[in-house]
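Example record

The entry below shows one chain as it appears in the dataset: sequence first, then structure tokens.
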Amino acid sequence: MAGGLNLAGAAINACRPVTAGTGSGSSGTGEKLMLLRGLTVLIFFQLLGTGLNALLLPKLPGPILGLVLLFTYLMLTRQVSEPVEQAAGGLLRYLPVLLLPPAVGVMVHFADIRADFWAITGSLVLSLLVSLVCVGGLMQLLIKRQTGKKQQGETP
């Protein structure tokens, strides 16, 4: 158990900003180290989510739990460290490549999709309408709250 705590501490330390060394700018070794630290943090949260999935929440995917935990951590600290930002930017650069397997799956199962076309279309339209109603209601609520705060601030 102590090893797990050391791993958690190392991952949290990796989230802290890195102080740049002396010199004219960023060196190749420093950038690689920051990228490695950022990837370590991302993988740590994914492993943490997978552990929670195996122990407590088998219905939810582990990587999704890890993303929720990472999001919660970033919201609590209110900052994204440079290593995490660099690693996330590097991964986002290759996002289109990650979308190839689902595209291939759509082509492989095209006959099944064609057979259920109207059910899929109906569920997409219904979910779009429900989302529009929910977002519109939330937007109206937030506008009322914002105007109420402005009016309270103007009157002494």
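Notes for this example: The longest helix spans residues 117-154. The two ends are 57 Å apart (CA to CA).
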